[in-house]
Amino acid sequence: MFRKIDDSMFVSPQITLADVTAAKELGVGLIVNNRPEGESEDQTPGDAIAAAAQEAGIAYVAIPVSHAGFSLNQVVALDEALAQAGDAPVLAYCRSGTRSTLLWALTKARAGVSPDEIAAKAAGAGYDVSPLRAQIDMLAANKA
């Protein structure tokens, strides 16, 4: 269920409480919830995931991304969360994993990672960053 983007990042569609245990077994040190609360009736509430993560010894942060798009504040928040995770892998989730992947891509571009490398890693996990490629290129160019 978890898709590996690189050695430090997994993305996933909506997770359940049982998935928190699976994340712990993979050594995940941080779970990032990119899903707004109440987006659908079948989603596990963020508070329940946060409580299960805490019980498992995994840090948790919510950085909701609605269908309205991405903001620099969200990119900065993910960057700060990734820095606090240290060497432990991170699991980010949303409805399908796409918003989590795109937010990761923007964050990596802002850090100066090559847009082609970002696109290749995302594609390797089954995600397409082309809808935000112009923004990824712009953020990476500003870092260079």
UniProtKB/TrEMBL annotation:
Signal peptide segment: none
Domain called Beta-lactamase hydrolase-like protein phosphatase-like: residue spans: 2-110
InterPro entries, A to Z: BLH_phosphatase-like, Prot-tyrosine_phosphatase-like
SUPFAM superfamilies, per the entry: (Phosphotyrosine protein) phosphatases II
GO MF annotation terms: hydrolase activity
Entry-linked NCBIfam families: TIGR01244 family sulfur transferase
Record protein name field: Beta-lactamase hydrolase-like protein phosphatase-like domain-containing protein
